[in-house]
Amino acid sequence: MVGYAFMGAAHSQAWRTVNRVYDLPARVRMAAICGRDPEKVADAADRLGWESAMTDWRELIARDDIDLVDVCTPGDSHAEITLAALAAGKHVLCEKPLANTVAEARAMTAAAAVAQAAGVRSMCGFNYRRVPAVTMMQQLVADGRLGTIRHVRAVYLQDWIVDPQFPLVWRLQKDKAGSGALGDIGAHIIDLTQFVTGQRIAGVSAVTETFVKERPLTAGSTGLAAGGPTGDTEVATGPVTVDDAAVFVARLDGGAVATYEASRFATGRKNALRVEVNGSLGTLVFDLERLNELEYYDATRPAAEQGFSRILVTEGDHPYMSAWWPPGHLIGYEHSFTHQMRDLVEAIALGVDPAPSFADALQVQLVLEAVERSARLGSSWAEVEPALASVAV
Ligand SMILES: NC(=O)c1ccc[n+]([C@@H]2O[C@H](COP(=O)([O-])OP(=O)(O)OC[C@H]3O[C@@H](n4cnc5c(N)ncnc54)[C@H](O)[C@@H]3O)[C@@H](O)[C@H]2O)c1
Known about the structure:
By secondary structure, the protein is an alpha/beta fold. It has 10 helices and 16 strands. It is globular. The site of nicotinamide-adenine-dinucleotide has 23 residues, from helix 1.
């Protein structure tokens, strides 16, 4: 694993757990974790359960006893690490968004296709697909239970940078993060809605906004949390180079119309992801704050009995749930990562390709690019090309 902070911890928990919960055709050995600071990475290895700690990801990739590389760093290093790992014949799990640009995502997708021919597997970490209620939502839509999909309504809202004094962490810098709320949380709802509906976003009209344009610089600030103050009396500031919020309408290639909102300025909303799909035969609603539930309106029932029902997705025959607790005993955020590792380990052991593939993630990247293009051009319509048509292998 490369990177040991937020996603490093979430993935480590999943790697530690996956063989203890699921009966899998292969066993995971947590061989090495890599970070740039020797003391901190040694501490992380100890705390998170890795056998060894390293400070150079190139040395990690060169090790013969490592079969898979899990990329948990910010977007500016995804392409470089992933391309090197694939070239060395290692399977790769790369966090989302796949890259900082479409060009990088294309190169990674092409490299994954070449590696695949040699039995090397790649997967992008859109973990929300593996919340059992979301997986079930996808299955119900695929089974035709909603009929023809007309509307998709998706929001992903946070509020951790409402304070203008919140420092200029890497997520607010384009060269490190690629984009702001758009690529960080918007990417999740783009992937999730394309997954659930089986339809591709074909075009968008967007607005993006950066509400706070300068922020204090701090030493060692990372990710979603601030580091300590720099100690200067006059606090230096730097420019915010990404969007704080992105809002767009979209057409899906199966005929549905959709709205998307991704913001870090939705005061009071901590991690509020909600997706609603309306079809000719019914509606399904998923809300991450109630992630064990799925709301279902079945319009095929007699009129007098119609109404939203709440399905508690904790039965043994619900997706992923057979290995957990008796019905009604709830699971949480971290379980989606364990499910992700289960599917990846199984795919590698069985010699099949896991999903979401890099091509799926490139499709998301193409939407991110189209949203930025549309916003730049005063919300004019921006077409999104199909991912596979855009990759030369
Ligand atoms: N799937 C999800 O729900 C989810 C949630 C949060 C973040 N993410 C994604 O995970 C990735 C990491 O985000 P995070 O929140 O864990 O960030 P973070 O700041 O908490 O952690 C990043 C880690 O990468 C390390 N790092 C940075 N550059 C490095 C390099 N060149 N070599 C080695 N280590 C390096 C840092 O030291 C740190 O340990 C991003 O791509 C982000 O978009 C996904």
